[in-house]
Amino acid sequence: MTRDGQYGAPAALVVRRGQAFRLRLTCDRPFDRSRDAMSLIFTVDQDERPTHGHGSLVGVALQQFRHIEDPLEWGAAIDFVSGDVLEILVKPAANALVTKWKLDFDTKLLSEGFGKSYSLPQPFYLLFNPWCKDDQVYLEDKALRDECVMNDTTLIWRGSYNRLRPSVWKFGQFDKHVLDCSLLLIAKVGKVSATHRGDPIRVCRAISAAVNSPDDDGALLGNWSGDFS
C-alpha cells in the first residue's frame, strides 16, 4: 500500500496475484458466524460490461475457515472475529486480470432476504506475481527476482561495439504515477482489453510496441541523428 498523502493522493492498495492479503472490516454490530453471510464482488474498474465469463466480474462467498484451496480461483475466508471487527483473507486467482479492481461487500442475515452493500472507497491494483508458483511469471531464483523486479536501477551499455561504456539506467517502477501510466499504455496505446490482461505474453508484447510508438502516443521518442557507424 502506498502511504496516505505520499503523492498528494489517498493511499492505494497494491497486491499480487495468487497471494492472500488481509482486510479489516468494522461492522455496525458484532458479527455472528451462525447468522451472518457475506459475499465479495470484484469488478474490473471502468469496465462498462463486466462478465463472469471474461473474468472481469468475480463473486466470492466468504468462507468460515481460513483454508483457500484452488490457486486458480478467487477466495475469501474469515481469519478472526472480535466483536464488531472482522478480519478476512482475500486471495486473487493466480491467473486473474492485471488491472484496477473495484470491491463491493454484500451482507445479509441467513434467516432473511434483506441485505446491505458496502463499496471499497477506491479501486485496488492487482499485479503479476513472480513469487507465486502458480503464476505464469514465476521466478524461482531470488537473485533474478531482485534483479528483474525489485531493483529500480541497473546498468546499460552504450557506444560502438569496440568502445562500450556503462551508464546508469533508472527503471523507476516504484515512482509516482508509473503504475497508472503503465496501465494506461496497456489499455489505450497497446489496446489490450481487460479480458486479456491476465496473459503476461500479450501484455509484454503490447508494452513493447507501445513504448516505441511515436505515431500513437507512445512513451519513447527516438533520436537517430548521431553517427552510429
From TrEMBL:
An example Gene Ontology molecular-function term = protein-glutamine gamma-glutamyltransferase activity
Question: Which segments constitute the Transglutaminase N-terminal domain?
Answer: 11-107
Query: Pfam families, from UniProt?
Result: Transglut_N (PF00868)
Q: Which Gene3D superfamilies has this protein been placed in?
A: Immunoglobulins, Transglutaminase-like
Family classification: Belongs to the transglutaminase superfamily. Transglutaminase family.
**Name the record gives this protein:** Annulin
- Give the organism the record lists: Culex pipiens (House mosquito)
Organismal lineage:
Eukaryota, Metazoa, Ecdysozoa, Arthropoda, Hexapoda
